[in-house]
Amino acid sequence: MGIGRRIKQAREAAGLTQEELGKLVGVTGSAITNYEKETSHPKEPVMYSLIEALGVDANFLFQDCVKIKSAPSDLSEEAHKIAESYERLTDHGKGAVRAILGYEETALVHCSQQEQAAGEVLPFPKSRRSGPMVQINVYDQPSAAGMGNYLDKPDFHVEQYPISVIPPKTDFGVIISGDSMEPKVHDGGTVFVRSTPSVEPGKIGIFILNGQAYCKKLAVDQDNRQIRLVSINPAYPDILVGEFDSFRTLGQVLGQWTPGYIQDFFGW
Known about the structure:
CATH architecture of the largest domain: Ribbon
Oligomer: single chain
Radius of gyration: 20 Å
Structural class: alpha+beta
Distance between the termini: 39 Å
Number of domains: 2
Number of helices: 7
């Protein structure tokens, strides 16, 4: 049973029609139909609304997509400590934890879908070490720190850097265009990226939104149940990830190198 059938099961148990559930979560009845048929998947803000409207938790909806250990004895000591800390949090703090968990669980499901469709999570190769140098692919078509550029199997060239210049866990590089991430990321520079299907809120990543590539900081707004791509340069507005947008993460930006600027590893 997939997430769509779980949504349908919970909806029917709650005695709601697809139209009624759609009104509760702010989408059309046909959108609910698509969710249940798994021809499309709810975005993170809608997922929160579904969980609330259906009176279920994330574990119920994702139990068939993400392996969850149900027996308390199977949980690690660290997991028990986290659970104890969670119980001591305020309602606001618990909401923040649930927001992060919801985002990560959605990323895991999306990761699983990518693996089934393409046999791998991301198409980018790993870095290669040759003696004192690290060799990486640097993608020539820039990721916009601005308006967004297409980044789907772009041309690349191979560059070599001393080990001291490449942040640990770097997999590939991307050339940047635009100044929306100044003064952290510079126009025309190269960012070093670690392949990953998700990044933590507050971190800078390379994202694909509706076929366009962006270098932005990720923000998860738990109060408004929104995902936003944020520019460091205040002259640029945030980019809101809409309910029906196609959105995925290529990786986390670990640092940047731009001629004429100081080498920068991101330690936050």
